[in-house]
């Protein structure tokens, strides 16, 4: 039992790991972070922006179609959460705004994002359902297993799509090669006949 608890604790630590990024945003510039995420995946983020008097930073979370999933002007720190509706590239943009009369400075921005199982708050779920810590860990592992299965299914689907694309490309290349070969043979035949006729007209050959 202790060994099982230890294994689940280690897996829980690995699952709870988040993607954290820290960078500097120059005055009156925009910096975006992009990531491709699968369909029906819960995404959460937490950000913190270094304060600078007079400088404002806006944050926008959008997809490739331009839909705004989260927008906050004059942001300092906060959280966002959304569920993806399609396989798409999602973008988090930080936009710096500095008044023309003020000389701006670079601001330090920290953002941490979580996807899927990582983004779920199992502690709140356990309190609502009155689950024991071991039951919460089992629920977390169940969701993690389902997420891994979905990832493998997505990878298999992409592999099938790539294979179909390769087969289609190979067929087109083969047909193009055959067409080019026929054109070259036809051109060579025409050239031989033309030169034969030309030399006969010049009486260079019989």
UniProtKB/TrEMBL annotation:
SMART domains associated with the record: EMP24_GP25L
Membrane topology value: Single-pass type I membrane protein
Transmembrane segments annotated in the record for this chain: 173-195
Chief place where the protein resides: membrane
Signal peptide stretch: 1-20
Compartment(s) where it occurs, according to its Swiss-Prot or TrEMBL record: Membrane
Pfam families: EMP24_GP25L
A GO-annotated cellular component: membrane
Superkingdom of origin: Eukaryota
Start and end residues of each GOLD domain: 30-140
Keyword set, alphabetical order: Developmental protein, Membrane, Signal, Transmembrane, Transmembrane helix
Family: Belongs to the EMP24/GP25L family.
Protein name per UniProt: Transmembrane emp24 domain-containing protein bai-like
Lineage of the organism: Eukaryota, Metazoa, Ecdysozoa, Arthropoda, Crustacea
């Amino acid at each position: 039992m202790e060994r099982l608890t230890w294994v689940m604790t280690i897996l829980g630590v690995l699952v709870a790991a988040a993607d954290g990024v820290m960078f500097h945003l120059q005055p009156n510039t925009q910096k975006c972070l992009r990531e491709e995420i699968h369909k029906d995946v819960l995404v959460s983020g937490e950000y913190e922006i270094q304060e600078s008097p007079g400088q404002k930073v806006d944050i926008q979370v959008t997809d490739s179609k331009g839909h705004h999933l989260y927008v906050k002007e004059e942001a300092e720190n906060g959280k966002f959460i959304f569920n993806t509706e399609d396989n798409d590239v999602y973008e988090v943009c930080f936009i710096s705004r500095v008044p023309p009369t003020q000389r701006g400075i670079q601001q330090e921005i920290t953002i941490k994002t979580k996807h899927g199982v990582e983004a779920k708050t199992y502690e709140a779920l356990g309190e609502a359902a009155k689950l024991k810590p071991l039951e919460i860990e089992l629920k977390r592992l169940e969701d993690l297993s389902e997420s891994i299965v979905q990832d493998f299914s997505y990878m298999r689907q992409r592999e099938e799509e790539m294979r179909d694309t390769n087969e289609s490309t190979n067929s087109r290349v083969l047909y193009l090669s055959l067409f080019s070969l026929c054109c070259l043979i036809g051109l060579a035949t025409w050239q031989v006949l033309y030169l034969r006729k030309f030399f006969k007209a010049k009486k260079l050959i019989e």
